[in-house]
Amino acid sequence: MIAKKEARKLCSTRRKQLSTEDVALLSERIMKRISCLQVYKDCTDILAYFRLGNEVDPESLFEEAVRSGKNVFLPKVKGEEMDFFPYTGRDSVSKGYMGIMEPVSDETFTYGADKKILMIMPGVAFDRKGGRVGYGGGYYDRYLDRYRNEKIVRLAAAYELQVLDEEIELDEFDIKADIVVTEDNIYNLLK
C-alpha cells in the first residue's frame, strides 16, 4: 500500500517531466483508446474536463463527441461544490476557477433514466484497482457521492506513468474509477 500523499507527490513529479509534445502525443493515443471502448460508443452524455497543466488532454475527444451528436458537459466549481454544464465548442467556455476553462452556460446537467453517462475523470495518481488520487480538493468525490444513485461509468484518463503497481491507501469517501485508460493499457474493473 502507498499513502495518498506519497502517491500524489510521486506521480505529480513524473507528470511534470512530460514535454508539451509528450502531452499532445500521449493524450491523443489515450483518447483514441477511449473512443474505441463500448462504454464510449454507447453513451449519450459525457461529463469531461478541461486539462490543467500536464494532465491528459481530452479536448479532441469531446470535440469529436459533439460532432457525432453526443452531449458533452464540463465542470464548473462554485465554492466547495462542482456541477457540470453544457459544452458545445470553444466559444461556450471561458477561464474560471484556477484559470481552467469552464462553460459559460448556467444550465446544469440533469439526470434521466434514458441517459447513458460516461464521466472522464482527471487525477494525479491511480492504481490498477481503480484507486484515484486527485489534487486534494475532493470535488469529484463529493459530486459522485451526491449522485451515487445515478448510473455513471467512471473512466479515468491517465498516463501509464501515473498508474502505480502498489494499491493506493484510500479514505472511505474516495470514489474509485471503473476503468483507467492509459496510452498502453485499459484497466477495466467493470468486468
Describe the structure in your own words:
The protein is of the alpha/beta class and about 190 residues long. Helix content is about 25%, strand content about 25%. It is built from five helices and 14 strands. Strands 4-3-2-7-10-13-14 form a seven-stranded mixed β-sheet. Strands 9-8-11 form a three-stranded mixed β-sheet. Strands 1-12 form a two-stranded parallel ribbon. The longest helix has 17 residues, at about 20-35.
List the helices and strands and how they pair.
Blueprint: E1 2-3, H1 4-16, H2 20-36, H3 38-42, E2 45-47, H4 59-67, E3 71-78, E4 81-87, E5 93-95, E6 101-103, E7 117-121, E8 125-127, E9 132-133, H5 139-146, E10 152-157, E11 163-164, E12 168-169, E13 179-181, E14 186-188
Parallel strand pairs: 1-12, 2-3, 2-7, 7-10, 8-11, 10-13
Antiparallel strand pairs: 3-4, 5-6, 8-9, 13-14
Per DSSP E runs of 2 or more residues, the count of β-strands stands at 14
As residue ranges, the low-confidence spans are: none
How is the main sheet built?
Answer: 7 strands, mixed
Shape: globular
Instruction: Summarize model confidence as the mean pLDDT.
Output: 93
Distance between the termini: 24 Å
Radius of gyration: 15 Å
Task: State the gist of this model.
The protein is an alpha/beta fold. Helix content is 27%, strand content 27%. A 7-stranded mixed beta sheet has the order 4-3-2-7-10-13-14. A 3-stranded mixed beta sheet has the order 9-8-11. Strands 1-12 form a two-stranded parallel sheet.
